[in-house]
Amino acid sequence: MAVSRADRRRDRTERARREFGPDAEAALDVLELTEFAWHDCFGEVTPPDGVIDDVFTVGKGSMTEFVRAARLAVEDYRDLRVAADPFRG
């Protein structure tokens, strides 16, 4: 079953609000741009949920780090996973 971009954005809103407060919409915009880039690079509509989780994890509530993590997700999602692992208990 296909999930629309609006549905994915809605599903990610709670976490974005929790981690970015008033900047949640900007974080969701970054994820939408990441989806466009992901599609161009990998031909898939959106990154896997684990990659999105890694972006949030590496972002650590900092918009600067979040944007850098989103870029790394598209550049080399394996490096993003390595960067996220130390933040997981």
Describe the fold and architecture.
- With 89 residues, the protein is mainly α.
- The protein has one domain (5-87).
- Helices cover 76% and strands 0% of the residues.
- The chain is built from four helices and no strands.
- The chain has helices at 5-20, 24-42, 49-59, 63-84.
- Helix 1 (5-20) packs across helix 2.
- The radius of gyration is 12 Å and the shape is globular.
- The protein starts with a helix and ends in a 5-residue tail after the last helix.
- The model has no long low-confidence stretch (mean pLDDT 96).
The average pLDDT is 96
Radius of gyration, Cα only, in angstroms? 12 Å
Helix and strand run: HHHH
- What is the total domain count? 1
Number of strands: 0
Based on the model shown, name its key terms:
mainly alpha; 0% strand; 89 residues
